[in-house]
Design a protein that fits this description.
By secondary structure, the chain is mainly alpha-helical. It contains five helices and no strands. The radius of gyration is 13 Å and the shape is globular.
Length: about 80
């Protein structure tokens, strides 16, 4: 699984766990429609800015920062 697929699945899991699409959209600075298109496979997260992804998943900030400090690509730590 590549990072784009993993992020799309994580967004879907967030919504399935009870987080509303509107709440995710507000957290990321996106529209609810954009979140809906990601969940339904009609839009990709590949074009989202890194800071948008960090707003969606604040825990990514620590992963990216740790990876940069250790000199390894951030994608190596995304599960």
């Amino acid at each position: 699984m590549n990072a784009i697929d993993a992020i799309s699945e994580a967004i879907t899991r967030e919504c399935n766990s009870g987080v509303t699409q509107q709440a995710l959209a507000e957290r990321a600075g996106l529209t609810k429609g954009h979140i809906n298109r990601i969940i339904n496979g009609h839009a990709s997260v590949g074009g989202l800015a890194v800071n948008t992804l960090i707003r969606l998943f604040p825990q990514l900030d620590a992963v990216i920062t740790e990876s940069l400090l250790n000199g390894s690509p951030a994608g190596d730590n995304i599960q």
